[in-house]
Design goal:
The chain is of the alpha/beta class. Helix 4 packs antiparallel against helix 8. The strands form 4 sheets. A 7-stranded mixed sheet has the order 6-5-4-3-2-1-22. It is 31% helix and 22% strand. It starts with a strand and ends with a strand. The protein is globular, with a radius of gyration of 21 Å.
């Protein structure tokens, strides 16, 4: 088999990898890279037309955002993903296209995308031409999957984004019986120092910060990815408001988070058994908590920022590249009693990264905005940290080759140094091809 990296190599974003045999070409993911300038996979239209099938690991824009472009350029094949991934992808792409309005996307292309979406189940073999493909739970977000690809002689495991630890909603990735000669692994937190702190301590610090802000009469803004992180944050807040640890204040939920929350509820069978039992065995459904107030009209936002009472605002986008968070920041940035809590990865070139690194002035809608509210980071990751990534590689039986992707180049190379003692470890470049 041959592997070609059209995106996600030496960077976080635009994941897009081709796996080829003599008779078949498939793509693993098809994402965009958001930042100051939107970037797309470096795949030509001719190469797209040679693709026989697309297999999607999970529904985040850096893994699915290029799908509308691919179908608009003439792709006629199918897209394979789990049911939650396809449903979440529809929501995310609708929002992405409305905001970005890319000129290369056509109405016909979007129609073709919806016609060619195909649901796959976890742990079920898919015979695709001369390949056997299998999806395995990845623990990252609802419906996320590692993807196994085999031609009968050699096997590849692609992690997409992976999390080995259980969360409030999901079990960790199922890595019990992985077997492959080649691993393509993410490295978002692949540096030696990327060891996540104890979750109990992180949550405790975050809750204390929220409580302190509320007692001072301030408002808390929590930018979050609509899919995955937002649901974890909301469930955490719900638990601690109900237990009295956090004062009962309105929790406003804005952006695509509300639609994603409904999709999570409809697909609760993909969540942890404990959560399913909680809903079935009691009258309490955390997805429909009375603590959450959906922001379903833009006019609500002005009321939220102007009202005297404290509140918590969970809103998109997670890296502050657009979305309702921009409105809230513009209106609440001068309030020294307010806070902005960053709870997810902030990519280079995003406003979230600037603020995380201490910027007190940012460019918003063409004008400079002075940021006087406190900015704090609380690491609530849905990715594997370095020890988890090491564990993953060690669990893959018969492993010989490792390709390290989806990470800042310094982190990927750091992880490569560790792996090179046991495997042939490579940090590929964009458009690089390798035979395995």
């Amino acid at each position: 088999m041959k592997i070609t990296f059209f995106g996600g190599a030496g960077e976080v974003g635009r994941s897009c990898i081709m796996v080829s045999t003599k008779d078949t070409n498939i793509l693993l993911d098809s994402g965009v890279k958001l930042g100051e300038v939107e970037e797309h996979p470096l795949i030509s239209n001719d190469q797209i037309r040679a693709v026989d099938g697309i297999f999607i690991s999970h529904a985040h824009l850096d893994h699915v955002g290029y799908l509308p472009h691919i179908f608009s350029s003439g792709y006629k094949g199918k897209v394979y993903a789990t049911k939650p991934t396809l449903e979440l992808t529809n929501v995310l792409l609708s929002d992405y296209l409305r905001i970005s309005n890319p000129k290369t996307v056509t109405k016909k292309g979007m129609e073709e995308l919806s016609k060619h979406a195909t649901i796959v189940d976890y742990r079920k073999d898919i015979r695709f031409r001369d390949l056997n493909i299998r999806f395995i739970p990845a623990g990252h977000i609802l419906g996320s999957a590692l993807i196994e690809v085999s031609d009968g002689r050699e096997s590849i495991v692609y992690t997409g984004d992976i999390n080995l630890a259980k969360s409030r909603l999901l079990d960790g990735a199922d890595i019990k019986s992985l077997k492959a000669q080649t691993l393509i692994t993410e490295s978002t937190y692949g540096a030696k120092q990327d060891v996540f702190p104890n979750e109990k301590n992180v949550v405790g610090g975050m809750l204390k910060s929220i409580k302190d802000t509320i007692q001072l009469g301030g408002k808390v803004i929590i930018p979050s990815f609509a899919v995955g992180r937002a649901q974890e944050v909301l469930f955490l807040l719900d638990d601690y408001i109900n237990s009295g640890v956090v004062p009962k204040v309105p929790v406003y939920v804005d952006g695509m988070i509300n639609k994603a929350l409904r999709i999570y509820r409809h697909n609760v069978i993909y969540c942890r058994k404990e959560l399913q039992s909680k809903i079935l065995m009691s009258d309490y459904d955390p997805f429909k908590s009375k603590n959450f107030i959906p922001v379903d009209k833009k006019s609500m936002r002005s009321k939220i920022v102007s009202e005297d009472e404290s509140s918590i605002i969970v809103t998109t986008s997670g890296m502050m590249t657009g979305g309702p968070v921009m409105f809230y920041l513009s209106k609440l940035s001068k309030g020294s009693s307010n806070k902005l809590l960053l709870v997810g990865y902030q990519a280079i070139g995003t406003m979230g990264r600037e603020l995380q690194e201490g910027a007190r002035k940012v460019l918003l809608n063409g004008s400079e905005l002075k940021v006087e509210l406190d900015v704090e980071t609380y690491h609530l990751s849905a990715h594997a940290d370095r020890p988890q990534l090491e564990m993953l590689a060690g669990r893959v039986k018969d492993l010989e080759n490792v390709f390290i992707v989806h990470g800042e180049i310094s982190k990927s190379r750091d992880f490569q140094s560790y792996l090179s003692a046991r495997y042939k470890a490579t940090v590929p470049g964009l458009k690089n091809e390798y035979d395995v």
